[in-house]
Design goal:
alpha/beta, 2 domains, 10 helices, about 60% helix
Amino acid sequence: MRGGSIVLSGLWRHITDNLGSYLGTLAVTVLVTTVSWPFRRLRESARRPVTVYLGSTWDELAEHRAAIRERLSRDPVVLVERSDIEPPEQQIRDATMFVGLYAWQYGASNGESDSHRELVSALDHHSGPRLRLWMVRKGQRGWSLGHEDTNYRDDDSPIGRLRRLVLQHNPQQLPNEPAELAREVATAVREVRRLEHRQSRYLDSLLDPRSFAVGAAVAVAASLYFAVRISVVGAASSFATVLLLSLACGAIAYLARVASTVSFLR
């Protein structure tokens, strides 16, 4: 009983003797948590969106389009697809870039299919990085047929003519896996966004939540380290010392990660 009281007494004396240091740790944790909310709001306000028109041959690529929708929903992107409400020509013209996906299905038509008209319109209004096409190659390993046209092997069929037009504009091979295609499209969209909003290259890095998380984690860990270290060496308890040293470590870690991402983007 007496031994337990001695331990508790010693622990209490340790805490009271080093109260300033541990209060510094608490202050760092509260400060980091408080700053995270306006940091997140600032990031959202700085993310200027781009508009992407997603065109494709239709039923066979439903899963790939769904994966792209999900992936781009995480970024400042307004995604536009074929609509019966507004003519696609106007939507394509107003978009920042056009993304086209093509396989083996031409689609219903009374002449040119919707996917064919989308591509023709895109070629009139977009070029370079703002026109990005993906197409399934002939004999592509791992590609599952299921919605292809009956005459898809005929180069003079409607789908054959559409594919010839696509080939004139350096399409990338369309991955079999929807998630892989979604990553490639997201990368292409990010490149165009940086062309449209050049400051976004640096704002995205400066306001990257992962950079903030690294800085916050380092600051909190450093505050614990300095609080314990001060008590171990028997130095005078100091709220300001723990607070300032910890925040300095967190800031250095944050800026180091920002610098590394900016360097990588170059």
